[in-house]
What does this fold into?
Amino acid sequence: MSHVIKILHTTFGLFGNVFGILLFLAPLITFKRIIMKRSTEKFSGVPYLMSLFNCLFSAWYGLPFVSRNNTLLTVLASIGGGLEAIYVLIFIIFAPKREKLKISGILFVVLSIFSIVALVSVLTLHGNKRKLLCGLAFAITCIMMFGAPLTVMRQVIKSKSVEYMPFLLSLSVFNSSTSWAIYGILGKDPFIIVPNAIGTLLGSVQLILYAIYRDNKGEGKKDDMDASIETGLGKPQEKKLDRIQNEIQKNIPEKNMEASKMDYEL
It folds into this structure.
């Protein structure tokens, strides 16, 4: 690796770290909402599990005894893994019982698979064979991480609303994956190039969807309320009618009392 290429390689690795950290911090808004409402609503916990899965293998693949010149990958993955673990824990706490069991089960599978691959690579494999196994595991989990938002993208197309697809998350996916794809090209590492090229493509699609549906945030709830007010069939109108009805019922006994009093006096 020439001096210039090495500098560029390190530079894009640093860019990848900056954008990657922003990517891992992007869900803070979502989890602030979850904590405040004490509910996961329609948010999916799968993308955070896939991110954690990828962080474990990214950190492992970047270690010097697995692959060379990828220490920056391990640094980012270690930070990201810690954050993703916190997100998954929060999701498990506030998710409905059924979703809680589902996420816990997937988490157990994720940790089991990583433990098996890590032990096999250390105890039985060496050199290129170790790099091949860990590289494939890293690439596959990376593709799974970038592919996890496909369910959210489908929901956006179906509902024509980007309420559950935060813009910062989509932008961070695009920037991070693009930086790491260039980093992989400069380092001639196909295990980094391929998944991040796919991530760049999917990030582009998310940004396009956001541009199309950016004005539709929670339209369904707004439409329901507007329909209620305009047609006079909604809850605001029902509450008004109930209040009038209560006042009428309250006044009826008073009028009956007055009528009875007049009859008595007569």
Observations:
- The CA atoms of residues 242 and 248 lie 10 Å apart.
